[in-house]
Amino acid sequence: MNLAHLIDQHEGDRVALISRSRPTTYGALRDQVAHVRGGLAALGVERGDRVVLLCGNGRYFVLAYLATIGLGAVAVPLNPASPSPEIEREIAKVGAKVVVVEPAAAHAWNGVTRSAVPSVTTVIATEGGAIDGSVELASLLDGPTADIVEVEPGDVAVLMFTSGTAGAPRAAMLSHGNLLANLEQGRSANVQIDAHDVVYGVLPLFHIFGLNVVLGLSLLRGATVVLVQRFDPSTALDTIRERGVTVVPGAPPLWLAFSHFDEAPADSFATVRLALTGAARMPEEAMKRLKARFDLDICEGYGLTEASPVVTSSAGMTVKYGSVGKVLDGIEVRLVDESGDDVVEGDSGEIWVRGANVFAGYLDDPEQTARVLTADGWLRTGDIGTVDDEGYLYLVDRAKDLIIVSGFNVFPAEVEEVLAEHPGVAEVGVVGVPHPHHGEAVKAFVVPEPGTHLDEDQLIEWCSDHLARYKCPSKILFVDELPRNVSGKLLRRSLV
């Protein structure tokens, strides 16, 4: 088996992708992926090698992704907008052999210290001219092909960096079996994407929602994915209308933008039969506005990277505001108390998940893996939920300290570590605060070194040099001291 087989069975003349207004049929996609597989193999990529993808939503990402996993190698999608230090840390962590870079990420890649990533032997540029000494991906399309390498279900297909259940970012190991299992489990949620559907693909493919739900599920079902690099509500509605989009998956900020887009015609979503959201809690008020203005029901679900990612969905059932739907078939969910016992029916408890979709653990981190995976296979999510008498799950709290910005996880410790490296910072505490468009934003409380004058913009710029933009504080307050308990532990709840 190999997850890359998901494009094999579809009619060759059906359109698989539309990228930069250019259609690619399933037949052409299979041929192009086979050539890129051959090119990667000729460059020495073998089973188990790590290939980093510094690419946005486009055809080249899809080719490199399917070719990598098709060889039994491991794809590592990274945010191409991340600054050089973050990219450098993540590449070094996974020991990548090859890095595929799009032009927008060329500057960041060129800022990576080569001696810090000695495992990298080859850089592949999706378009030429921006990176010295690189191989052009287009040249691989003219070379020999290679067959798909059959692997075991437990072989790792993707390393996905997450700060979800276990704190600072770690590389979650998702196997071919994990990812394929979640695609099959999705059938039970009546997410009946089929070959006649056109799916709006703006969710980033370096995020698990975009990678395995938007791309993976669509390709498995033979649908067409319209790949979009950047979101703008006006041009998005043009695309939905012109392409006849039928399925729109989006994180809450996308739907919030639509709900506030007063100029949008009432029939803007006339072709859309399925609107999905996840990655962060969807405000009920926005769901009601979208229903009233566009007669559009938003089907909310719940998942996390470590579950490949979907655990529950409300697709195909009556939408209950505030609920994330019901558990997919093939997945077990428990609500447990602090002792690990099942809670009394109707009470809230930590959500534990078990199924073939649950990840194998964090790369080279058995200690953190043991904290989130029990010996009998239960994933401790850290999220707190309740279930009603119809089986609908409601989230009442989420993983401790986690900040969710536009659907992306930000762990305060990572931001604190970067700020603490500034020579003028003595202490720092970071929390999430509500944001009308992004769900949450990062706010930092900084104690300056004695006699040091610090400027808020200066520290925000410092963060932007070391962290992805969504992780950077939007507000920094300077304080004389941070609240701590008797043992010296930071009391985040007291930061206001």
How would you sum up this structure, described in words?
The chain has 496 residues and is of the alpha/beta class. It folds into three domains: 3-151, 3-Layer(aba) Sandwich (Rossmann fold), CATH 3.40.50.980; 186-397, Rossmann fold; 403-494, GMP Synthetase, Chain A, domain 3 (2-Layer Sandwich), CATH 3.30.300.30. It contains 13 helices and 26 strands. The strands form seven sheets. The chain has a five-stranded parallel β-sheet with strand order 4-3-5-6-7. Helix 1 (26-42) crosses helix 2 and helix 9 (252-259) packs across helix 10. The chain is globular.
List its salient traits.
13 helices; 5-stranded parallel beta sheet; GMP Synthetase, Chain A, domain 3; 5-stranded mixed beta sheet; single chain; Rossmann fold; alpha/beta; globular; 496 residues; 3 domains
Q: What's this entry about, in short?
A:
The chain has 496 residues and is α/β, with parallel strands linked by helices.
Topology:
Blueprint (H helix, E strand, L loop, with lengths): L14 E5 L2 E4 H17 L7 E5 L4 H12 L3 E4 L6 H11 L3 E4 L4 H5 L11 E4 L9 E2 H4 L15 E7 L7 E6 H10 L12 E4 L6 H14 L2 E4 L5 H11 L3 E4 L1 H8 L14 E4 L6 H11 L3 E6 L6 E4 L12 E2 L3 E6 L12 E7 L5 E2 L3 H7 L6 E9 L5 E5 L5 E3 L2 E3 L1 H9 L4 E11 L3 E10 L7 H9 L10 E4 L18
Helix pairs in contact: 1-2, 9-10
